[in-house]
Amino acid sequence: MRHPAANITIFDVLQSADTFVNRLQAIKASIADIRWYPYNTISSLGFLSTLTEGINIPANAVLDLGAADGDISFLFADAGASVDAFENAPSNINKGDGLRRLNDAFGKPLSLTFTDLDFGVIFPRDFYDLCFATGIAYHLRNPLLVYLNLAQHCRFMITNTRVIDIPPSDSRVKRAYWRIASRLYRLQNRQNRETRFSRKPFAYLLDRREINDDPTNYWLFTPAGYRRMLKRCGWNILREVSVGSSIGTLNSDKRLWALCERVQNYADLKLHHDF
User: Fold this and answer.
1) Which residue in 2, 19, 90, 197 is a FRET match for 215, CA 20 to 30 A apart?
2) What is the structure's pLDDT at 39?
3) Could you give the C-alpha distances from 47 to 23, 152, 215, 244, 275, in angstroms and in order?
4) Contact 246, 190 (CB under 8 A)
5) DSSP strand pairing (128-133 vs 154-163)
6) Helices (DSSP H) in the chain: which residue ranges?
7) Which residues are CB-contacts of 145 (< 8 A; sequence separation ≥ 6)?
8) Could you say which DSSP state residue 38 is in?
9) Which pLDDT belongs to residue 177?
10) Distance (Å, whole) CA 201 – CA 176
């Protein structure tokens, strides 16, 4: 691990990513008894580059919520950032052992906290340059509480969630209609285009195991719904990009990524001012 340096930017971190990824993979391969997180979180580096290109984002103090095995956290720590990583051990695929073991292997560069964000949390410091809140919004019972709390502590945020572009329905006719519409979008190469429903600020509360047989999934937002939630919680979206399926449904996974900066009057968020 490098010694902490002053004035680190996200550009500096991404510049060092290739060398770090090789080291990370080697260390994981040497720890054979851990069931690692099945999704390659380090693959999000391409999205990070797209979202942040041309924007000067400091990364001296970084907060990572839902760190999984900590790939992104360790990348930033290796570049010299001071990183606090949060994870919920009961819902983690290896109960947090992967994150702990990697922290030991890298020389304990991370401050680790295992907690459930839904029940309120006190962060180790008052200010972070940047936070990551990726892959957690649809798992949160209280997403507005979490995003409000983040806006009071973090200047920039990179976040994402799974979104839907068609309304959930028990009607076979409506489901058939939207299947046909989705195929037409694909045939027309209308990648990541939004439907009329996409532009409605809608949030759908999932039943248990309604998606991926996973009871930890709670909310699906339309793109407009996710944007509105971020705005109401004190965040301005600077840039966004959608990945995955062209049309988000209960059965097709589309993700909306956003780079956000908190509002200037973030200290007044508890006062219900206009943001």
Assistant:
1) 197
2) 82
3) 21, 25, 28, 12, 27
4) yes
5) parallel
6) 10-15, 17-30, 45-52, 71-78, 97-105, 143-151, 172-187, 223-232
7) 118, 120
8) S
9) 72
10) 24
φ, ψ of residue 212 to 5 degrees: the values are 55, 20
100 contacts 112 by C-beta, under 8 angstroms: yes
Q: Quote the pLDDT of residue 195.
A: 86
- Report whether 158 contacts 133 (CB < 8 A): yes
Fold annotation for 10-271: Rossmann fold (3.40.50)
**Planar angle of CA 67, 145, 164, nearest 5 degrees:** 75
Q: For residue 57, give the 3-state DSSP assignment.
A: coil
Q: How far apart are CA 253 and CA 221, in angstroms?
A: 12
Per-residue pLDDT of the chain (275 residues; tens, 9 = 90+): 444 456 899 999 999 898 999 999 999 999 999 999 988 788 888 889 999 999 999 999 999 999 999 999 999 999 999 999 999 999 999 999 999 999 999 999 999 999 999 998 999 999 999 999 999 999 999 999 999 999 999 999 999 999 999 888 767 777 677 667 766 766 665 555 688 899 999 999 999 999 989 999 999 999 999 999 999 999 999 999 999 888 899 988 999 999 999 999 998 988 876 76
- The domain limits of the chain are 10-271
Q: Hey, what amino acid is at 185?
A: Y
Please give the Cα distance from 168 to 218 (Å, whole number).
14
Q: Rounded to whole angstroms, how far apart are CA atoms 70 and 207?
A: 29
Nearest to 150 by CA among 136, 167, 164: 136
DSSP class of residue 9 equals B
Contact between residue 218 and residue 144 where contact means Cβ atoms under 8 Å apart: no
Helix axes 17-30, 97-105, angle to 10 degrees: 110
Report yes or no: 259 and 44 within 8 Å, Cβ to Cβ. no
